[in-house]
Specification:
- The protein is of the alpha+beta class and 379 residues long.
- The chain has eleven helices and 17 strands.
- 45% of the residues are buried.
- It binds adenosine-5'-triphosphate and magnesium ion.
- The site of magnesium ion (MG) has 3 residues, from strand 14.
- The site of adenosine-5'-triphosphate has 18 residues, from strand 6 and strand 14.
Length: 379
């Protein structure tokens, strides 16, 4: 194993077959690799690009055995995959990127925020609420704040905003007293993210910083380059790369930051996989975040990450489809020469469901943003 490089047409495995798995599979297939996807959904978006789709749960012993004996390396696209399944695969001698241990940290906000703080990187003040008894002391340092479940939160779900101690107790009861973090509400100027790649031999690269705007807790647009001072963007890149080093991380990971007054940066969270805010790389950098994922797991050198053009990425949620399931007016997008549409092949368009995204490449981020909004409104 060690630092041996894995070349095409080797079979690569991925745990999870959503849109991130689909774009990974597409990148891997283009590079000449085979792809095996494990996902319990028979309509998993990644299955369209996979040689083999194991339609089984993430703990299915036979499916895991199949992956261990057929895949030269395995990655994931889904942070709530069973970390013990990943550790078991590693014990069978399959190179795993990331490791089950890194995924386990990212799965649990208490472990994650504690790790980041102990790595010497800034996070918002937080209290680990392992049991209700943790709420007995003085909570004023965390209020007003947000109570977030330690596990299984995404797109702003599993979070309750709290102002008083009574609010906190009530919110914790709402969350059935499960482990949570109580985090101080920060005055955000903006939100940005970094996508880092670290390879088996320890090379680290970071894509240009994206500035992210959310709507109803879901990423709406990413603007690249982020409209912040270059020094601040560079600091975010350095922090993200440091975190990858401290984790001894192998693979692609995303780090989300809050930008505060006085050029302060705090890390919000990490994702042990490519990220929605990195989808601009599909068209705006020489290497995509999914090709980087392939390169990292295969022990190859990371590809160049320079931005070729300012870009705005817009998420397409099911809300853009008609109530009768009718498609958006794709011609609006398809006839604009500087836009790129990416659809995930999902049959059912539910409100809030990520169906696809488009990238607008223009001379400046502001010009791209203006055009992106105009397109979204007419779709
Ligand atoms: P996602 O899946 O989109 O990453 P999530 O469920 O993991 O979301 P967070 O990233 O923790 O949740 O929070 C969602 C959003 O809520 C953040 O992007 C930010 O806008 C806001 N938010 C979270 N924590 C804080 C905070 N401490 N202060 C201010 N705003 C916050
Ligand atoms: Mg988040």
């Amino acid at each position: 194993m060690g630092n041996k490089i894995i070349l095409p047409p080797a079979m690569l495995g991925i745990l999870g077959g959503g849109q991130l798995g689909r774009m990974f599979a597409s990148a891997a297939k283009n590079m000449g690799y085979g792809v095996t996807v494990l996902d319990p959904d028979s309509h998993a978006p990644a299955a369209d690009f996979a040689d083999v789709h194991l339609c089984k749960s993430f703990t299915d012993v036979e499916a895991l055995q199949y992956m261990a004996s057929h895949c030269a390396a395995i990655t994931t696209e889904f942070e709530n995959v069973n970390a013990d399944s990943m550790r078991w695969l590693a014990e069978q001698g399959v190179p795993m990127s990331p490791s089950g241990d890194c995924v386990a940290i990212a799965q649990d906000r208490i472990a994650e925020k504690t790790f980041i703080r102990d790595a010497g990187l800034d996070v918002a003040p937080f209290l680990a609420v392992k049991t209700s008894a943790c709420l007995d002391g003085d909570l004023s340092a965390y209020l007003p704040g947000i109570l977030k479940t330690a596990r299984l939160g995404y797109d702003g779900k599993g979070q309750i905003r709290v102002k008083t101690i009574d609010d906190v107790r009530f919110a914790h009861a709402e969350m059935k007293h499960q482990p949570c973090v109580l985090e101080k509400m920060m005055p955000l100027l903006s939100e940005i993210s970094a996508i880092v790649t670290r390879t088996r031999s320890g090379e680290v690269t970071c894509f240009p910083i994206a500035e992210n705007e959310h709507e109803n807790g879901i990423l709406d647009v990413s603007i690249v380059p982020a409209r912040i001072k270059p020094e601040l963007a560079e600091r975010a890149r350095q922090m993200a790369m440091q975190l990858a080093e401290k984790l001894d991380y192998i693979g692609v990971m995303a780090v989300e930051f809050f930008v505060l007054e006085d050029d302060q940066l705090v890390i919000n969270e990490m994702a042990p996989r490519p990220h929605n805010s990195g989808h601009y790389t599909l068209n705006a950098t020489l290497t995509t975040q999914f090709e980087q994922q392939v390169r990292a797991m295969c022990g190859l050198y990371p590809g160049k990450t320079d931005l070729l053009s300012p870009t705005v990425m817009v998420n397409l949620l099911g809300d853009s489809w008609g109530e009768d399931g009718s498609e958006p007016r794709w011609e609006v997008l398809m006839t604009a020469p500087n836009t790129k549409l990416h659809l995930y092949g999902k049959k059912l368009a539910r409100p809030g469901r990520k169906m696809g995204h488009f990238n607008v490449l223009a001379a400046s981020a502001d010009a791209a943003l203006e055009q992106a909004h105009a397109i979204k409104e007419t779709l």
